[in-house]
From TrEMBL, chain A:
Keywords: Cytoplasm. It catalyses: RX + glutathione = an S-substituted glutathione + a halide anion + H(+). The gene is LOC110146500. Its EC number is 2.5.1.18. It comes from Odocoileus virginianus (White-tailed deer). Belongs to the GST superfamily. Theta family. It holds the Pfam family GST_C. This is glutathione transferase.
Automatic annotation (TrEMBL), chain B:
Belongs to the GST superfamily. Theta family. It is found in: Cytoplasm. This is glutathione transferase. Its EC number is 2.5.1.18. It comes from Odocoileus virginianus.
Length: 265, 281
């Protein structure tokens, strides 16, 4: 059995891995784990990943979780072109820096935007207050400011003149709120231009294919009651913790993001 | 202390920078004319650290253990020094740790550790060449951001910093929930990563162990006896301390272990740190 990738294209990190593997013609068996059907909670999948999360890589007996680790493993194992994860010390460090930052910043905000705007109400039938949604979208906005101000600046791609893993991870994250109907590129011409470049570098067809599922997220069928019961506590635990953070950021208006030094830095 | 990730300090920053007192930066212009000429800061590697912060300790231990020559630039986050104009030039994210190597600046402890490992050609076991071994390290370094880091930071703040330093009451139920979450994380640490191995990613110490141990010392410093009922984890801790060297380990943790003796913050500081305090609840 060759390389297997356990993915649900509804998930941001899964899309990044899917695009990366396809773009680099890495041969793999796609094992779809349908999150909305609760397939990640099955006993079969628990044998693959007891943490019940996607994405997962299985290469013979070797099982690997965490999308950043998976992307790096694939890049090395299949000796992809250098620009994805450069050998140059400083260029590589820039990619590492983005991949580290995004976990608790852009990734989190994009995830919350999708859940607060679409998935909680539509899929799990749980209303979300307008204030909560507004806070979430304000936080997303702040993360976008950092993305543009610190990472992109006036470069073609996030970490330099060529597309890297950082861009793949970022673009797939941003498509989450896009899938939820948020106009993240509106009023952000720099970011919109970067998006075009990333899509062109990936290839329009592959990009569209990878994002077909997320772009139809708002058409999700409501979860059946049993599944809802299983999923809701986990989702709420994730949302609640971050809701506390966002509430406090809203109450402290003199936040550092608001005083972003700007592209002259 | 939260270091990067969850815990940058966000509040109205003080307009004066104290960085020039503790670090190697320039004094404010109004003092330059009365002070003796200060030599320009070294152009070599500079590490901007606050050892109260978990990721800073990991970077410090790694650099010292590998005899990497660097200038230590102390940035005291509790005093708001991460908001100084000088420091913002180094890291616009206003978080520690940060690295400056000539004109090259770098944020994020994971990125910094890997940069140092590569540039100074640290022994292989820190970040192994072997593909699968390396993947295990990457897996840990990725998982910890939203798992162990979060619960260790919360546990330390809720048990110690909030009540002792900021005089803020933490409801017992809140602390209980936090410690339960920490416990679950520790179980995962043992079951998913350590398993039957000597170290988190295999038979030898790697940067994953450094990141993990410095994380765990946070709740330890607050009096959480996390190793008590976990003999496997306790044995791993001993191995990590031995591999790092007892003296270096103790030195890196001196500040955090004395955090419980910090005098209560004055009213002004308490006000400024209020948003941060809420962050850790």
């Amino acid at each position: 059995m060759g390389l297997e990738l356990y993915l649900d294209l509804l998930s941001q990190p899964c899309r990044a891995i899917y695009i990366f593997a396809k773009k680099n013609r890495i041969p793999f068996e796609l094992r779809t784990v349908d999150l909305r059907k609760g397939q990640h909670l099955s006993d079969t999948f628990a044998h693959v990943n007891p943490l019940q999360k996607v994405p997962v890589l299985k290469d013979g007996d070797f099982i690997l979780t965490e999308s950043v680790a998976i992307l790096l493993y694939l890049a090395r194992q299949y000796k992809v072109p250098d620009h994805w994860y450069p050998r140059d010390l400083q260029a590589c460090a820039r990619v590492d820096e983005y991949l580290a930052w995004q976990h608790t910043a852009l990734r989190r905000n994009c995830l919350r935007a999708l859940w607060h705007k679409v998935m909680l109400p539509v899929f799990l039938g749980e209303p979300v207050s307008p204030e909560m949604l507004a806070t979430t979208l304000a936080e997303l906005d702040m993360a976008l400011q950092v993305l543009e101000g610190k990472f992109l600046q006036d470069k073609a791609f996030l970490t330099g003149p060529h597309i890297s893993l950082a861009d793949l991870v970022a673009i797939t994250e941003l498509m989450h709120p896009v899938g939820a109907g948020c106009q993240v590129f509106k009023g952000r011409p720099n970011l919109a231009a970067w998006r075009q470049r990333v899509e062109a570098a990936v290839g329009e067809v592959l990009f569209q294919e990878a994002h077909e599922v997320i772009l139809k997220a708002k058409d999700s069928q409501p979860a059946d009651p049993t599944l809802k019961q299983k999923m809701l506590p986990k989702v709420l635990a994730m949302i609640q913790r971050e809701a506390k953070i966002s509430r406090e950021r809203k109450e402290a208006p003199s936040l550092s993001w608001g005083r972003w030094p700007g592209p002259t830095l | 202390m939260g270091g990067e990730g969850v815990a940058g300090l966000w509040y109205l920053e003080p307009r004066t920078s104290l960085g020039w007192v503790t670090g190697g930066t320039r004094p404010p212009p109004f003092l330059s004319s009365v002070l003796p000429a200060v030599p320009a800061p070294a152009m070599g590697l500079e590490l901007y650290l606050d050892l109260l912060s978990q990721p800073c300790r990991a970077v410090y231990i790694f650099a010292r253990k590998n005899r990497i020559p660097f200038e230590l630039r102390t940035v005291e986050v509790l005093k708001g020094q991460n908001h100084s104009d000088d420091f913002v030039q180094v890291n616009p994210l206003r978080k520690v740790p940060a690295l400056k190597d000539g004109d090259f600046t770098l944020a994020e402890s994971v990125a910094i550790l890997l940069y140092l490992a590569r540039k100074y050609e640290a022994p292989d076991h820190w970040y192994p060449q072997d593909l699968q071994a390396r993947a295990r390290v990457d897996e840990y370094l990725s998982w910890q951001h939203t798992a162990l880091r979060v619960s260790c930071t919360r546990a330390m703040w809720q048990k110690m910093m909030l009540p002792v330093f900021l005089g803020q009451r933490v409801p017992p139920e809140t602390l209980e929930t936090t410690l339960a979450a920490l416990d679950r994380c520790l179980q995962l640490l043992e079951d998913m990563f350590l398993k039957g191995q000597d170290f988190l990613a295999g038979p030898r110490i790697s940067v994953a162990d450094l990141v993990a141990i410095t994380e765990l010392m946070h709740p330890v410093s607050a009096g959480c006896d996390i190793f008590k009922s976990r003999p496997k984890l306790a044995a791993w801790r001993q191995r990590v301390e031995a591999a790092v060297g007892e003296d270096l380990f103790r030195e890196a943790h001196a500040a955090i272990m004395k955090a419980k003796d910090l005098p209560p913050a004055d009213t002004a500081v308490k006000e400024k740190l209020k948003p941060l305090a809420q962050l850790f609840m």
